[in-house]
Amino acid sequence: MIRTSVSLLLVIAVFILVASGPSLIRMESNEIHLHPEALFQSLAEMGDRAVNGTLMKYQAGRAYHKLNETLPVYFMISLRYILFSALLSLLIGVSLAFLTSFRQGRLITSVIEFLHIIPDFVLAFFLQIMVIAITQATGYRIARIAHMSEASPAYTLPIAVMTIVATVLIIRGVHGYLEEVKSQDYMRFAIAKGLSKPRLISTHLLVPILYKLRGDLHGLLSLLIGNLFIIERIFNIPGVTNFLFHNAFQKISTSLIDGNIQFVTQLHVALSGLLSIVVIYWLLYGLISLILTLVIRWRE
Amino acid sequence: MKFSNWMLTAGIVLLFLILGLAVFGPVLAPFPPDYQDNIIYLQTDNGRELFISPIAPNPPYYLGTDPWGYDILSLMLHGLKYSLLTTLLVSLFRVLCALGIVMSGGGKFHTSRMWGGLNAIPQFVIIYFILYSLNFNSPLPQNILTAIQWTLMTAFGVPALVPSVASSVRKLQQQEFVTAATAIGAGPLRRFFVHIMPHLWERLSLLFSRETVAVLSLVGQLGIFNIFIGGTSFTPYPLLYNSKTNEWAGLLGQYRTYISGGTWWIGLFPLIGFMILLSAFYLTSRGLQKKIHQTYHSISHI
Questions:
Q1: Which of A26, A49, A299, B209 could be bridged to B285 by S-S, CB 3.0 to 4.6 A?
Q2: pTM
Protein backbone atom coordinates (compact mmCIF):
# COMPACT_ATOMS: atom_id res chain seq x y z
CA MET A 1 0.00 0.00 0.00
CA ILE A 2 2.79 2.41 0.99
CA ARG A 3 4.74 1.44 -2.10
CA THR A 4 1.71 2.06 -4.30
CA SER A 5 1.10 5.46 -2.70
CA VAL A 6 4.75 6.45 -3.12
CA SER A 7 4.71 5.35 -6.77
CA LEU A 8 1.47 7.24 -7.34
CA LEU A 9 2.98 10.39 -5.82
CA LEU A 10 6.06 9.95 -8.01
CA VAL A 11 3.88 9.60 -11.12
CA ILE A 12 2.02 12.79 -10.14
CA ALA A 13 5.38 14.54 -9.56
CA VAL A 14 6.55 13.50 -13.04
CA PHE A 15 3.26 14.72 -14.51
CA ILE A 16 3.65 18.09 -12.78
CA LEU A 17 7.15 18.31 -14.22
CA VAL A 18 5.96 17.35 -17.71
CA ALA A 19 2.93 19.64 -17.61
CA SER A 20 5.12 22.53 -16.50
CA GLY A 21 7.51 21.82 -19.40
CA PRO A 22 6.56 24.88 -21.48
CA SER A 23 6.95 27.18 -18.44
CA LEU A 24 10.21 25.58 -17.29
CA ILE A 25 11.96 25.78 -20.65
CA ARG A 26 11.37 29.12 -22.34
CA MET A 27 12.85 31.21 -25.10
CA GLU A 28 13.99 34.65 -24.00
CA SER A 29 15.98 37.03 -26.19
CA ASN A 30 16.83 34.20 -28.57
CA GLU A 31 18.23 31.95 -25.87
CA ILE A 32 16.87 28.97 -24.02
CA HIS A 33 16.23 29.78 -20.38
CA LEU A 34 15.40 27.33 -17.66
CA HIS A 35 12.98 28.60 -15.06
CA PRO A 36 12.82 26.10 -12.20
CA GLU A 37 10.92 28.68 -10.17
CA ALA A 38 8.06 28.42 -12.68
CA LEU A 39 7.34 24.97 -11.29
CA PHE A 40 6.80 26.36 -7.80
CA GLN A 41 4.86 29.32 -9.17
CA SER A 42 2.47 26.96 -10.96
CA LEU A 43 2.13 24.85 -7.83
CA ALA A 44 1.54 27.95 -5.73
CA GLU A 45 -1.06 29.13 -8.20
CA MET A 46 -2.75 25.78 -7.97
CA GLY A 47 -2.65 26.08 -4.15
CA ASP A 48 -4.22 29.55 -4.41
CA ARG A 49 -6.94 28.18 -6.62
CA ALA A 50 -7.61 25.43 -4.08
CA VAL A 51 -7.87 28.01 -1.27
CA ASN A 52 -10.09 30.52 -3.05
CA GLY A 53 -12.29 27.84 -4.58
CA THR A 54 -11.39 28.31 -8.26
CA LEU A 55 -9.52 25.02 -8.69
CA MET A 56 -12.31 23.74 -10.86
CA LYS A 57 -12.44 26.82 -13.08
CA TYR A 58 -10.44 26.97 -16.29
CA GLN A 59 -10.13 29.11 -19.36
CA ALA A 60 -10.88 27.72 -22.83
CA GLY A 61 -10.32 30.43 -25.42
CA ARG A 62 -12.30 33.38 -24.16
CA ALA A 63 -14.77 31.35 -22.15
CA TYR A 64 -14.54 29.94 -18.65
CA HIS A 65 -15.66 26.44 -17.76
CA LYS A 66 -15.78 24.20 -14.74
CA LEU A 67 -13.62 21.05 -14.69
CA ASN A 68 -16.17 19.08 -12.68
CA GLU A 69 -18.77 19.76 -15.36
CA THR A 70 -16.80 19.29 -18.57
CA LEU A 71 -14.07 16.75 -17.72
CA PRO A 72 -16.43 13.84 -16.91
CA VAL A 73 -18.08 14.34 -20.32
CA TYR A 74 -14.72 14.26 -22.14
CA PHE A 75 -13.65 11.32 -20.00
CA MET A 76 -16.70 9.25 -20.87
CA ILE A 77 -16.31 9.99 -24.59
CA SER A 78 -12.68 8.81 -24.58
CA LEU A 79 -13.49 5.79 -22.44
CA ARG A 80 -16.29 4.80 -24.80
CA TYR A 81 -14.00 4.85 -27.84
CA ILE A 82 -11.08 3.07 -26.23
CA LEU A 83 -13.10 0.45 -24.35
CA PHE A 84 -15.10 -0.52 -27.39
CA SER A 85 -11.97 -0.73 -29.55
CA ALA A 86 -10.05 -2.72 -26.94
CA LEU A 87 -12.76 -5.35 -26.49
CA LEU A 88 -13.47 -5.58 -30.20
CA SER A 89 -9.78 -5.94 -31.08
CA LEU A 90 -9.24 -8.64 -28.42
CA LEU A 91 -12.17 -10.65 -29.70
CA ILE A 92 -11.29 -10.28 -33.38
CA GLY A 93 -7.53 -10.46 -32.78
CA VAL A 94 -7.47 -13.73 -30.83
CA SER A 95 -10.04 -15.41 -33.08
CA LEU A 96 -8.32 -14.36 -36.30
CA ALA A 97 -4.90 -15.29 -34.96
CA PHE A 98 -6.11 -18.84 -34.22
CA LEU A 99 -7.93 -19.13 -37.52
CA THR A 100 -4.91 -18.03 -39.51
CA SER A 101 -2.12 -19.64 -37.51
CA PHE A 102 -2.68 -23.07 -39.08
CA ARG A 103 -2.75 -21.71 -42.61
CA GLN A 104 0.38 -19.62 -42.78
CA GLY A 105 1.14 -17.92 -46.04
CA ARG A 106 -2.49 -17.21 -46.77
CA LEU A 107 -3.80 -13.86 -47.93
CA ILE A 108 -4.90 -12.75 -44.48
CA THR A 109 -1.37 -13.08 -43.08
CA SER A 110 -0.09 -10.83 -45.86
CA VAL A 111 -2.87 -8.33 -45.17
CA ILE A 112 -1.96 -8.30 -41.48
CA GLU A 113 1.71 -7.82 -42.21
CA PHE A 114 0.85 -4.98 -44.56
CA LEU A 115 -1.42 -3.33 -42.00
CA HIS A 116 1.29 -3.59 -39.39
CA ILE A 117 3.56 -1.18 -41.22
CA ILE A 118 0.90 1.51 -41.30
CA PRO A 119 0.89 3.89 -38.33
CA ASP A 120 -2.49 4.87 -36.89
CA PHE A 121 -2.54 8.35 -38.40
CA VAL A 122 -1.75 7.07 -41.91
CA LEU A 123 -4.45 4.42 -41.57
CA ALA A 124 -6.90 7.13 -40.50
CA PHE A 125 -6.04 9.21 -43.58
CA PHE A 126 -6.32 6.23 -45.93
CA LEU A 127 -9.68 5.19 -44.47
CA GLN A 128 -10.95 8.77 -44.88
CA ILE A 129 -9.84 8.79 -48.51
CA MET A 130 -11.40 5.37 -49.07
CA VAL A 131 -14.74 6.37 -47.56
CA ILE A 132 -14.88 9.52 -49.68
CA ALA A 133 -13.91 7.59 -52.82
CA ILE A 134 -16.62 4.98 -52.16
CA THR A 135 -19.19 7.69 -51.43
CA GLN A 136 -18.29 9.52 -54.64
CA ALA A 137 -18.36 6.33 -56.70
CA THR A 138 -21.53 4.75 -55.35
CA GLY A 139 -23.35 7.61 -53.66
CA TYR A 140 -23.62 5.44 -50.54
CA ARG A 141 -22.05 6.90 -47.38
CA ILE A 142 -20.52 4.01 -45.41
CA ALA A 143 -19.19 6.24 -42.63
CA ARG A 144 -19.46 9.84 -41.59
CA ILE A 145 -16.39 12.08 -41.73
CA ALA A 146 -16.65 14.59 -38.91
CA HIS A 147 -15.40 18.12 -39.46
CA MET A 148 -14.38 20.84 -37.04
CA SER A 149 -17.75 22.52 -37.46
CA GLU A 150 -19.80 19.43 -36.66
CA ALA A 151 -21.05 19.11 -33.12
CA SER A 152 -21.20 15.31 -32.83
CA PRO A 153 -18.09 13.24 -33.43
CA ALA A 154 -17.87 10.38 -35.92
CA TYR A 155 -17.79 6.85 -34.53
CA THR A 156 -17.20 4.33 -37.29
CA LEU A 157 -13.83 5.45 -38.64
CA PRO A 158 -12.11 6.28 -35.32
CA ILE A 159 -13.17 2.96 -33.80
CA ALA A 160 -12.22 1.17 -37.02
CA VAL A 161 -8.72 2.69 -36.93
CA MET A 162 -8.16 1.91 -33.26
CA THR A 163 -9.53 -1.61 -33.62
CA ILE A 164 -7.48 -2.39 -36.72
CA VAL A 165 -4.21 -1.17 -35.18
CA ALA A 166 -4.80 -3.07 -31.92
CA THR A 167 -6.07 -6.19 -33.70
CA VAL A 168 -2.96 -6.32 -35.86
CA LEU A 169 -0.76 -6.06 -32.76
CA ILE A 170 -2.71 -8.85 -31.04
CA ILE A 171 -2.65 -11.15 -34.08
CA ARG A 172 1.09 -10.70 -34.56
CA GLY A 173 1.71 -11.27 -30.85
CA VAL A 174 -0.50 -14.36 -30.71
CA HIS A 175 1.11 -15.76 -33.88
CA GLY A 176 4.51 -15.39 -32.24
CA TYR A 177 3.34 -17.07 -29.02
CA LEU A 178 1.60 -19.83 -30.98
CA GLU A 179 4.85 -20.65 -32.78
CA GLU A 180 6.52 -20.83 -29.38
CA VAL A 181 3.79 -22.89 -27.70
CA LYS A 182 3.35 -25.23 -30.68
CA SER A 183 6.99 -26.26 -30.50
CA GLN A 184 6.79 -27.07 -26.76
CA ASP A 185 7.21 -30.69 -25.66
CA TYR A 186 3.84 -30.82 -23.88
CA MET A 187 2.16 -30.18 -27.23
CA ARG A 188 3.90 -33.21 -28.70
CA PHE A 189 2.85 -35.20 -25.65
CA ALA A 190 -0.78 -34.09 -25.98
CA ILE A 191 -0.80 -34.98 -29.69
CA ALA A 192 0.76 -38.38 -28.89
CA LYS A 193 -2.05 -39.00 -26.37
CA GLY A 194 -4.50 -38.59 -29.24
CA LEU A 195 -6.30 -35.44 -28.12
CA SER A 196 -8.55 -33.94 -30.76
CA LYS A 197 -7.55 -30.72 -32.51
CA PRO A 198 -10.38 -28.61 -31.02
CA ARG A 199 -9.39 -29.81 -27.54
CA LEU A 200 -5.74 -29.05 -28.23
CA ILE A 201 -6.61 -25.56 -29.37
CA SER A 202 -9.15 -24.68 -26.68
CA THR A 203 -7.01 -25.73 -23.74
CA HIS A 204 -3.40 -26.47 -24.57
CA LEU A 205 -3.03 -23.53 -26.91
CA LEU A 206 -5.62 -20.99 -25.77
CA VAL A 207 -4.77 -20.94 -22.05
CA PRO A 208 -1.03 -20.23 -22.39
CA ILE A 209 -1.79 -17.67 -25.09
CA LEU A 210 -4.27 -15.84 -22.84
CA TYR A 211 -1.72 -15.85 -20.01
CA LYS A 212 0.83 -14.31 -22.36
CA LEU A 213 -1.71 -11.75 -23.59
CA ARG A 214 -2.51 -10.79 -20.03
CA GLY A 215 1.19 -10.33 -19.39
CA ASP A 216 1.49 -8.13 -22.45
CA LEU A 217 -1.52 -5.99 -21.68
CA HIS A 218 0.60 -2.93 -20.89
CA GLY A 219 1.94 -2.92 -24.44
CA LEU A 220 -1.54 -3.17 -25.94
CA LEU A 221 -2.95 -0.45 -23.69
CA SER A 222 -0.03 1.92 -24.34
CA LEU A 223 -0.69 1.49 -28.05
CA LEU A 224 -4.41 2.12 -27.62
CA ILE A 225 -3.85 5.26 -25.53
CA GLY A 226 -1.34 6.52 -28.13
CA ASN A 227 -4.00 5.85 -30.75
CA LEU A 228 -6.57 7.73 -28.74
CA PHE A 229 -4.44 10.90 -28.86
CA ILE A 230 -4.03 10.64 -32.63
CA ILE A 231 -7.61 9.65 -33.36
CA GLU A 232 -9.12 12.42 -31.23
CA ARG A 233 -6.85 14.88 -33.02
CA ILE A 234 -7.56 13.72 -36.56
CA PHE A 235 -11.29 13.13 -36.18
CA ASN A 236 -11.88 16.11 -33.86
CA ILE A 237 -13.35 13.98 -31.09
CA PRO A 238 -14.04 16.00 -27.93
CA GLY A 239 -12.29 13.55 -25.61
CA VAL A 240 -9.79 13.87 -22.77
CA THR A 241 -6.70 14.18 -25.00
CA ASN A 242 -8.23 17.01 -27.04
CA PHE A 243 -9.25 18.66 -23.78
CA LEU A 244 -5.62 18.40 -22.64
CA PHE A 245 -4.11 19.81 -25.84
CA HIS A 246 -6.64 22.60 -26.27
CA ASN A 247 -6.73 23.86 -22.72
CA ALA A 248 -3.49 23.03 -20.91
CA PHE A 249 -1.53 25.68 -22.80
CA GLN A 250 -2.97 28.56 -24.70
CA LYS A 251 -1.14 30.80 -27.07
CA ILE A 252 -2.31 34.24 -26.02
CA SER A 253 -0.36 36.52 -28.31
CA THR A 254 2.22 36.50 -31.05
CA SER A 255 4.74 39.29 -31.25
CA LEU A 256 4.56 41.01 -34.61
CA ILE A 257 8.26 41.87 -34.42
CA ASP A 258 9.92 38.51 -33.88
CA GLY A 259 6.95 36.14 -33.97
CA ASN A 260 7.64 35.05 -30.37
CA ILE A 261 4.64 33.41 -28.80
CA GLN A 262 3.33 34.20 -25.35
CA PHE A 263 1.26 31.50 -23.73
CA VAL A 264 -0.35 30.61 -20.46
CA THR A 265 -0.16 27.24 -18.76
CA GLN A 266 -3.08 25.94 -16.76
CA LEU A 267 -1.30 23.37 -14.62
CA HIS A 268 -4.49 22.14 -12.96
CA VAL A 269 -5.99 21.45 -16.40
CA ALA A 270 -2.87 19.67 -17.67
CA LEU A 271 -2.65 17.60 -14.52
CA SER A 272 -6.31 16.61 -14.49
CA GLY A 273 -6.11 15.71 -18.19
CA LEU A 274 -3.01 13.54 -17.72
CA LEU A 275 -4.42 11.86 -14.62
CA SER A 276 -7.72 11.16 -16.42
CA ILE A 277 -5.74 9.34 -19.10
CA VAL A 278 -3.97 7.28 -16.42
CA VAL A 279 -7.36 6.45 -14.88
CA ILE A 280 -8.63 5.32 -18.28
CA TYR A 281 -5.50 3.19 -18.65
CA TRP A 282 -5.92 1.46 -15.30
CA LEU A 283 -9.67 1.03 -15.71
CA LEU A 284 -9.07 -0.74 -19.00
CA TYR A 285 -6.21 -2.74 -17.52
CA GLY A 286 -8.40 -3.94 -14.67
CA LEU A 287 -11.35 -4.77 -16.86
CA ILE A 288 -9.44 -6.63 -19.56
CA SER A 289 -7.31 -8.54 -17.02
CA LEU A 290 -10.51 -9.58 -15.31
CA ILE A 291 -12.07 -10.79 -18.57
CA LEU A 292 -8.91 -12.71 -19.53
CA THR A 293 -8.64 -14.25 -16.04
CA LEU A 294 -12.26 -15.39 -16.18
CA VAL A 295 -11.74 -17.01 -19.58
CA ILE A 296 -8.53 -18.69 -18.36
CA ARG A 297 -10.32 -20.06 -15.25
CA TRP A 298 -13.14 -21.34 -17.44
CA ARG A 299 -10.83 -23.14 -19.87
CA GLU A 300 -8.27 -24.47 -17.39
CA MET B 1 21.10 -12.92 -49.91
CA LYS B 2 18.55 -15.58 -50.85
CA PHE B 3 15.87 -14.88 -53.41
CA SER B 4 13.23 -15.99 -50.88
CA ASN B 5 14.11 -12.99 -48.75
CA TRP B 6 12.59 -10.52 -51.20
CA MET B 7 11.71 -8.12 -48.41
CA LEU B 8 15.33 -7.47 -47.49
CA THR B 9 16.29 -7.01 -51.16
CA ALA B 10 13.34 -4.72 -51.86
CA GLY B 11 13.92 -2.75 -48.67
CA ILE B 12 17.60 -2.16 -49.36
CA VAL B 13 16.99 -1.24 -53.02
CA LEU B 14 14.24 1.19 -51.98
CA LEU B 15 16.45 2.70 -49.28
CA PHE B 16 19.26 3.29 -51.79
CA LEU B 17 16.81 4.96 -54.17
CA ILE B 18 15.54 7.17 -51.35
CA LEU B 19 19.12 7.95 -50.32
CA GLY B 20 19.85 9.01 -53.92
CA LEU B 21 16.75 11.22 -53.95
CA ALA B 22 17.71 12.75 -50.61
CA VAL B 23 21.23 13.58 -51.82
CA PHE B 24 20.34 14.79 -55.32
CA GLY B 25 16.78 15.97 -54.49
CA PRO B 26 17.66 19.67 -54.12
CA VAL B 27 19.41 19.53 -57.54
CA LEU B 28 16.56 17.60 -59.19
CA ALA B 29 13.84 19.80 -57.69
CA PRO B 30 12.20 21.97 -60.36
CA PHE B 31 11.92 24.95 -57.99
CA PRO B 32 13.71 26.25 -54.89
CA PRO B 33 11.83 25.55 -51.62
CA ASP B 34 10.80 29.20 -51.21
CA TYR B 35 9.48 29.56 -54.78
CA GLN B 36 5.87 30.71 -54.72
CA ASP B 37 3.53 31.05 -57.65
CA ASN B 38 -0.03 32.00 -56.78
CA ILE B 39 -1.38 32.81 -60.20
CA ILE B 40 -0.04 31.21 -63.38
CA TYR B 41 -0.95 30.66 -67.00
CA LEU B 42 -0.79 27.03 -68.14
CA GLN B 43 -1.16 25.52 -71.59
CA THR B 44 -4.11 23.08 -71.49
CA ASP B 45 -6.26 21.35 -74.12
CA ASN B 46 -8.47 24.44 -74.08
CA GLY B 47 -5.53 26.71 -74.79
CA ARG B 48 -3.85 29.11 -72.35
CA GLU B 49 -5.70 29.14 -69.07
CA LEU B 50 -5.31 31.10 -65.85
CA PHE B 51 -4.86 29.03 -62.69
CA ILE B 52 -4.95 30.14 -59.07
CA SER B 53 -3.21 28.07 -56.42
CA PRO B 54 -3.73 25.37 -55.28
CA ILE B 55 -3.01 24.08 -58.78
CA ALA B 56 -3.79 20.41 -59.53
CA PRO B 57 -0.91 18.15 -60.69
CA ASN B 58 0.10 19.45 -64.11
CA PRO B 59 3.48 20.17 -65.67
CA PRO B 60 5.56 21.97 -64.50
CA TYR B 61 3.91 21.28 -61.12
CA TYR B 62 4.00 17.50 -61.33
CA LEU B 63 2.51 16.98 -57.86
CA GLY B 64 0.52 20.22 -57.85
CA THR B 65 0.91 23.25 -55.60
CA ASP B 66 -0.39 24.02 -52.14
CA PRO B 67 -2.86 26.86 -51.39
CA TRP B 68 0.01 29.38 -51.20
CA GLY B 69 1.50 28.36 -54.53
CA TYR B 70 4.45 26.28 -53.35
CA ASP B 71 5.36 23.35 -55.61
CA ILE B 72 4.78 20.17 -53.59
CA LEU B 73 7.33 18.07 -55.50
CA SER B 74 10.06 20.66 -54.86
CA LEU B 75 9.16 20.91 -51.17
CA MET B 76 9.31 17.12 -50.87
CA LEU B 77 12.64 16.84 -52.70
CA HIS B 78 14.17 19.52 -50.49
CA GLY B 79 12.75 18.06 -47.29
CA LEU B 80 13.57 14.36 -47.77
CA LYS B 81 17.11 14.64 -46.42
CA TYR B 82 15.79 15.85 -43.06
CA SER B 83 13.37 12.92 -42.77
CA LEU B 84 16.03 10.40 -43.72
CA LEU B 85 18.75 11.88 -41.54
CA THR B 86 16.45 12.17 -38.53
CA THR B 87 15.27 8.58 -38.85
CA LEU B 88 18.72 7.08 -39.35
CA LEU B 89 20.59 9.15 -36.77
CA VAL B 90 18.01 8.96 -33.99
CA SER B 91 17.74 5.17 -34.44
CA LEU B 92 21.53 4.84 -34.42
CA PHE B 93 21.88 7.03 -31.33
CA ARG B 94 19.19 5.02 -29.56
CA VAL B 95 20.91 1.69 -30.18
CA LEU B 96 24.37 3.07 -29.33
CA CYS B 97 23.11 4.72 -26.12
CA ALA B 98 21.33 1.51 -25.07
CA LEU B 99 24.52 -0.46 -25.77
CA GLY B 100 26.58 2.11 -23.85
CA ILE B 101 24.26 1.88 -20.84
CA VAL B 102 24.37 -1.93 -20.85
CA MET B 103 28.14 -2.10 -21.29
CA SER B 104 28.70 0.39 -18.50
CA GLY B 105 26.80 -1.91 -16.16
CA GLY B 106 23.38 -0.22 -16.32
CA GLY B 107 20.10 -1.76 -17.36
CA LYS B 108 19.78 -4.01 -14.32
CA PHE B 109 17.04 -1.97 -12.69
CA HIS B 110 13.48 -3.22 -12.56
CA THR B 111 10.59 -0.92 -13.14
CA SER B 112 7.78 -0.87 -10.62
CA ARG B 113 4.33 -1.79 -11.88
CA MET B 114 2.94 1.53 -10.77
CA TRP B 115 5.22 3.19 -13.28
CA GLY B 116 2.72 1.74 -15.73
CA GLY B 117 1.02 5.04 -14.98
CA LEU B 118 3.75 6.68 -17.00
CA ASN B 119 3.32 4.06 -19.72
CA ALA B 120 -0.12 5.50 -20.22
CA ILE B 121 1.30 8.74 -21.56
CA PRO B 122 2.84 8.19 -25.01
CA GLN B 123 6.37 9.40 -25.72
CA PHE B 124 5.28 11.98 -28.25
CA VAL B 125 3.06 13.72 -25.71
CA ILE B 126 5.96 14.24 -23.30
CA ILE B 127 8.21 15.40 -26.14
CA TYR B 128 5.41 17.74 -27.29
CA PHE B 129 5.20 19.32 -23.83
CA ILE B 130 8.97 19.82 -23.64
CA LEU B 131 9.22 21.27 -27.15
CA TYR B 132 6.09 23.40 -26.88
CA SER B 133 7.87 26.61 -26.00
CA LEU B 134 10.86 25.97 -28.29
CA ASN B 135 9.36 24.73 -31.51
CA PHE B 136 6.89 27.39 -32.65
CA ASN B 137 8.54 30.38 -34.39
CA SER B 138 11.74 29.40 -32.66
CA PRO B 139 14.51 32.01 -32.72
CA LEU B 140 16.98 29.15 -32.19
CA PRO B 141 19.17 28.24 -35.19
CA GLN B 142 17.65 25.33 -37.10
CA ASN B 143 20.56 22.97 -36.39
CA ILE B 144 20.39 23.59 -32.63
CA LEU B 145 16.64 23.04 -32.52
CA THR B 146 17.02 19.87 -34.62
CA ALA B 147 19.76 18.63 -32.29
CA ILE B 148 17.46 19.20 -29.30
CA GLN B 149 14.67 17.30 -31.05
CA TRP B 150 17.02 14.42 -31.93
CA THR B 151 18.30 14.29 -28.35
CA LEU B 152 14.79 14.13 -26.94
CA MET B 153 13.71 11.46 -29.41
CA THR B 154 16.81 9.44 -28.57
CA ALA B 155 16.41 9.86 -24.81
CA PHE B 156 12.81 8.68 -24.83
CA GLY B 157 13.54 5.66 -27.00
CA VAL B 158 16.54 4.30 -25.08
CA PRO B 159 14.78 2.92 -21.95
CA ALA B 160 12.64 0.61 -24.08
CA LEU B 161 15.73 -0.71 -25.87
CA VAL B 162 17.94 -1.30 -22.83
CA PRO B 163 16.30 -4.57 -21.61
CA SER B 164 16.53 -6.07 -25.08
CA VAL B 165 20.20 -5.14 -25.53
CA ALA B 166 20.95 -6.16 -21.93
CA SER B 167 19.51 -9.65 -22.37
CA SER B 168 21.53 -10.22 -25.56
CA VAL B 169 24.74 -8.99 -23.96
CA ARG B 170 24.23 -10.98 -20.73
CA LYS B 171 23.57 -14.15 -22.74
CA LEU B 172 26.84 -13.64 -24.61
CA GLN B 173 28.75 -12.76 -21.45
CA GLN B 174 27.79 -16.12 -19.96
CA GLN B 175 29.16 -18.02 -22.96
CA GLU B 176 32.18 -20.22 -22.38
CA PHE B 177 34.32 -18.45 -24.94
CA VAL B 178 33.93 -15.19 -23.00
CA THR B 179 34.80 -16.93 -19.74
CA ALA B 180 37.83 -18.46 -21.47
CA ALA B 181 38.88 -15.05 -22.77
CA THR B 182 38.56 -13.61 -19.27
CA ALA B 183 40.61 -16.51 -17.89
CA ILE B 184 43.47 -15.86 -20.26
CA GLY B 185 43.49 -12.22 -19.27
CA ALA B 186 41.45 -10.37 -21.91
CA GLY B 187 40.42 -6.92 -20.68
CA PRO B 188 36.83 -5.63 -20.85
CA LEU B 189 37.45 -3.71 -24.10
CA ARG B 190 39.01 -6.70 -25.84
CA ARG B 191 36.22 -8.97 -24.58
CA PHE B 192 33.65 -6.55 -25.96
CA PHE B 193 35.15 -5.83 -29.36
CA VAL B 194 36.70 -9.21 -30.16
CA HIS B 195 34.40 -11.72 -28.45
CA ILE B 196 31.00 -10.11 -27.91
CA MET B 197 30.53 -7.58 -30.70
CA PRO B 198 30.83 -10.04 -33.64
CA HIS B 199 27.89 -12.03 -32.17
CA LEU B 200 25.95 -8.96 -31.14
CA TRP B 201 26.19 -7.26 -34.51
CA GLU B 202 23.28 -9.14 -36.08
CA ARG B 203 20.98 -8.47 -33.14
CA LEU B 204 21.91 -4.78 -33.01
CA SER B 205 21.28 -4.26 -36.70
CA LEU B 206 17.84 -5.83 -36.28
CA LEU B 207 17.11 -3.53 -33.33
CA PHE B 208 18.37 -0.56 -35.36
CA SER B 209 16.14 -1.41 -38.31
CA ARG B 210 13.12 -1.78 -36.01
CA GLU B 211 13.92 1.56 -34.42
CA THR B 212 13.90 3.27 -37.82
CA VAL B 213 10.22 2.35 -38.22
CA ALA B 214 9.47 3.47 -34.65
CA VAL B 215 11.34 6.78 -35.07
CA LEU B 216 9.61 7.59 -38.34
CA SER B 217 6.23 6.90 -36.73
CA LEU B 218 7.20 9.13 -33.79
CA VAL B 219 8.19 11.95 -36.16
CA GLY B 220 4.85 11.48 -37.92
CA GLN B 221 2.93 11.60 -34.63
CA LEU B 222 4.72 14.79 -33.60
CA GLY B 223 3.89 16.17 -37.05
CA ILE B 224 0.19 15.53 -36.46
CA PHE B 225 0.54 17.77 -33.39
CA ASN B 226 2.41 20.45 -35.39
CA ILE B 227 5.82 19.74 -33.87
CA PHE B 228 7.95 19.59 -37.01
CA ILE B 229 11.61 18.61 -37.27
CA GLY B 230 13.67 21.80 -37.67
CA GLY B 231 10.91 23.99 -36.30
CA THR B 232 7.35 25.11 -36.94
CA SER B 233 6.48 28.52 -38.27
CA PHE B 234 3.22 29.61 -36.73
CA THR B 235 0.82 32.37 -37.66
CA PRO B 236 -2.33 33.00 -35.63
CA TYR B 237 -4.31 34.87 -38.35
CA PRO B 238 -4.90 32.76 -40.40
CA LEU B 239 -4.08 29.85 -38.10
CA LEU B 240 -1.23 28.11 -39.89
CA TYR B 241 1.51 25.74 -38.86
CA ASN B 242 4.22 25.18 -41.46
CA SER B 243 7.32 23.02 -41.44
CA LYS B 244 10.52 25.06 -41.77
CA THR B 245 12.48 22.17 -43.28
CA ASN B 246 9.70 20.61 -45.41
CA GLU B 247 10.53 17.30 -43.79
CA TRP B 248 7.98 14.71 -45.00
CA ALA B 249 6.21 14.04 -41.71
CA GLY B 250 6.02 17.81 -41.29
CA LEU B 251 4.46 18.23 -44.74
CA LEU B 252 2.01 15.47 -43.89
CA GLY B 253 1.17 17.23 -40.62
CA GLN B 254 0.74 20.67 -42.15
CA TYR B 255 -1.36 19.44 -45.08
CA ARG B 256 -3.33 16.77 -43.22
CA THR B 257 -6.61 18.67 -43.37
CA TYR B 258 -6.48 18.68 -47.18
CA ILE B 259 -6.34 14.89 -47.47
CA SER B 260 -10.07 14.36 -47.45
CA GLY B 261 -10.97 17.55 -49.27
CA GLY B 262 -11.40 18.52 -52.91
CA THR B 263 -7.74 19.54 -53.25
CA TRP B 264 -6.64 15.98 -52.48
CA TRP B 265 -3.17 16.23 -54.05
CA ILE B 266 -1.92 18.62 -51.35
CA GLY B 267 -2.18 15.99 -48.64
CA LEU B 268 -2.06 12.79 -50.66
CA PHE B 269 1.44 13.08 -52.14
CA PRO B 270 3.20 13.75 -48.81
CA LEU B 271 1.15 10.85 -47.40
CA ILE B 272 2.27 8.51 -50.19
CA GLY B 273 5.86 9.71 -49.83
CA PHE B 274 5.76 9.08 -46.10
CA MET B 275 4.36 5.59 -46.70
CA ILE B 276 7.11 4.77 -49.22
CA LEU B 277 9.74 5.90 -46.75
CA LEU B 278 8.15 3.86 -44.00
CA SER B 279 7.81 0.82 -46.26
CA ALA B 280 11.51 0.96 -47.17
CA PHE B 281 12.52 0.88 -43.51
CA TYR B 282 9.90 -1.72 -42.69
CA LEU B 283 10.85 -4.07 -45.52
CA THR B 284 14.51 -3.90 -44.50
CA SER B 285 13.60 -4.58 -40.90
CA ARG B 286 11.28 -7.49 -41.73
CA GLY B 287 13.79 -8.89 -44.18
CA LEU B 288 16.52 -8.84 -41.56
CA GLN B 289 14.20 -10.41 -39.01
CA LYS B 290 13.29 -13.16 -41.47
CA LYS B 291 16.95 -13.79 -42.23
CA ILE B 292 17.76 -14.16 -38.54
CA HIS B 293 14.64 -16.26 -37.91
CA GLN B 294 15.54 -18.64 -40.75
CA THR B 295 18.93 -19.17 -39.13
CA TYR B 296 17.84 -19.78 -35.54
CA HIS B 297 14.15 -20.83 -35.42
CA SER B 298 12.81 -23.93 -33.66
CA ILE B 299 10.46 -26.41 -35.37
CA SER B 300 6.72 -26.61 -34.76
CA HIS B 301 5.21 -29.96 -33.70
CA ILE B 302 1.62 -29.24 -34.80
A1: B209
A2: 0.87
